[in-house]
């Protein structure tokens, strides 16, 4: 188990034998939740900080319990990964994003978080291709976020899967940049379209030392030709700073909280007439 509490592992550690029963319970609940349609997606807007336009949205999973309370992904995703339920959940998420955000033209681009086991599962890119075709979508409108906060052995299977996705036009984004160990080596191995800088770096921008760090990261990513998105923008001042730094995209509570697809009604993107 990881030492940092980013995914609530301190509260609930699926690898801790003491929590074995709880883990079994959550795994069973996950199966039932998917069957009974208690799983849903909310979408957080992505703003182009230079133009002010809505560039896209990120899908985040929620799970409603029969008693009406919600379980957050930091609690159930690690269990889903451990039990293999993530494969089914992930496929459901990809399909749902295509259906409720892309086919309806609510946004131009929507991103979906993917777990390492999904990328390693044979047939992943075939599933993505079939789902895009089913909704008549071009691949460029879909992005997958791979977090560097998890252990992912970038072996030939993963590299092959990513190049198959890229051949479909699907975008590959690096999530939580700066929080893990792998980021820099992944930049050598994977042709990312966007790098999402973790919000901890933005919060450090309160000090001169933190701002220098942010500028260094930006210049590194810039030199590699990567599009940069900064996460966790919570204030107008932070947005202004990111605009001054030449960042392309931002995300965070200041731009918008995650909301169900129906809330994206008229804010969204309109395809240009053919
Ligand atoms: P993430 O991909 O880094 O998503 C960003 C998290 O930060 C979300 O938490 C979001 O609600 C929260 N957030 C957004 N803006 C702000 C802000 O301005 N300030 C603060 N303090 N927080 C902000 P959430 O929805 O609880 O998701 C937690 C993590 O669970 C995600 O982190 C992602 O790694 C994972 N996750 C969520 N949905 C899925 C999914 O469908 N599949 C997989 N594999 N993982 C998922
Ligand atoms: Ca993400
Ligand atoms: Ca994450
Ligand atoms: Ca993130």
From TrEMBL:
Q: Which ranges carry the EAL domain?
A: 23-272
Q: What is this protein called?
A: Diguanylate cyclase (GGDEF)-like protein
Q: Which organism is it from?
A: Pseudorhizobium flavum
Q: What is the lineage of its organism?
A: Bacteria, Pseudomonadati, Pseudomonadota, Alphaproteobacteria, Hyphomicrobiales
The part of the entire sequence present here spans: 381 to 654 of 661
């Amino acid at each position: 188990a990881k030492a940092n509490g980013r995914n609530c592992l301190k509260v609930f550690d699926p690898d801790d034998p003491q929590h074995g029963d709880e883990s079994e319970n959550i795994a069973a609940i996950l199966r039932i939740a998917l069957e009974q349609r208690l799983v849903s997606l909310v979408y957080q807007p992505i703003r182009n900080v230079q133009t002010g336009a809505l560039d896209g949205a990120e899908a985040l999973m929620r799970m409603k319990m029969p008693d009406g309370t919600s379980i957050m992904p930091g609690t159930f995703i690690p269990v889903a990964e451990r039990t293999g339920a993530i494969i089914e959940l992930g496929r459901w998420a990809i399909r749902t994003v295509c259906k409720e955000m892309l086919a309806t033209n609510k946004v131009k681009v929507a991103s979906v978080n993917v777990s390492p086991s999904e990328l390693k599962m044979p047939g992943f890119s075939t599933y993505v291709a079939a789902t895009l075709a089913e909704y008549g979508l071009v691949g460029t409108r879909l992005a997958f976020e791979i977090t560097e906060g998890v252990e992912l052995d970038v072996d030939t299977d993963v590299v092959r899967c990513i190049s198959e996705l890229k051949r479909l036009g699907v975008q590959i984004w690096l999530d939580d940049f700066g929080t893990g160990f792998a980021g820099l080596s992944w930049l050598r191995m994977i042709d990312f379209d966007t790098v999402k800088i973790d919000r901890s770096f933005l919060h450090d921008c309160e000090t001169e030392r933190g701002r220098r760090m942010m500028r260094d990261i930006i210049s590194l990513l810039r030199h590699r030709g990567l599009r940069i998105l900064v996460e966790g923008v919570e204030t107008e001042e932070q947005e202004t700073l990111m605009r001054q730094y030449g960042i392309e995209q931002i995300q965070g509570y200041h731009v918008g909280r995650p909301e169900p697809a129906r809330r994206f009604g008229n804010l969204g993107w309109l395809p240009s007439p053919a």
